[in-house]
Write a structure and sequence with these properties.
Blueprint: H1 2-23, H2 27-37, H3 46-58, H4 63-84, H5 90-112, H6 120-145
Helix pairs in contact: 1-2, 1-3, 2-4, 2-6, 3-5, 4-5, 5-6
Length: 148
């Protein structure tokens, strides 16, 4: 049951990311499409967040969930990496991807908690602020100038 719930939620997220990435005119827009697409308003709720939490807790305990987890990670690494290709390399790129992924996962984790008040827009703003802080104005402008 958990597998199918998480798979469905991931499909919704993936479809939203792809939809927004197709509309992106530059690499910055692609990067923001990934961020925005990871917080669809219609599923960024406590129940879905608790399913994600359960999935992460169980991901290492069964081949089906482990395989799904690896797929999610590879997709995130590939999508984020394609946006900053040529600007970040090696360890810097790895830290960037890890940081963005941790903030996205952390926002979902926070949403799962009792009395969670974090909304999708706040989660998006937090991740975008981190990205801008890590990249700096010069690299953000470079991404805005690079076609997607």
């Amino acid at each position: 049951m958990l597998f199918w719930m998480v798979r469905h939620a991931n499909r919704v997220v993936m479809d939203e990311v792809v939809r927004q990435m197709k509309a992106a005119g530059n690499r910055w827009d692609r990067l923001m499409a990934i961020v925005h697409g990871n917080f669809p308003v219609d599923i960024f709720d406590g129940n879905t967040a608790r399913a994600w939490m359960s999935f992460y807790a169980m991901a290492g305990r069964g081949p089906q969930l482990e395989r799904l987890h690896r797929l999610f990670r590879r997709r995130m690494v590939s999508n984020l990496g394609s946006c900053v290709e040529g600007l970040l390399k090696g360890e810097e790129l790895s830290r960037f991807i890890l940081g963005v992924g941790a903030l996205i996962d952390g926002a979902w984790l926070r949403k799962a908690g009792p009395g969670a008040v974090l909304e999708a827009g706040e989660a998006i703003a937090m991740v975008e602020q981190h990205i801008r802080s890590v990249l700096g104005d010069k690299q953000v402008r470079a991404l805005q100038a690079m076609p997607s």
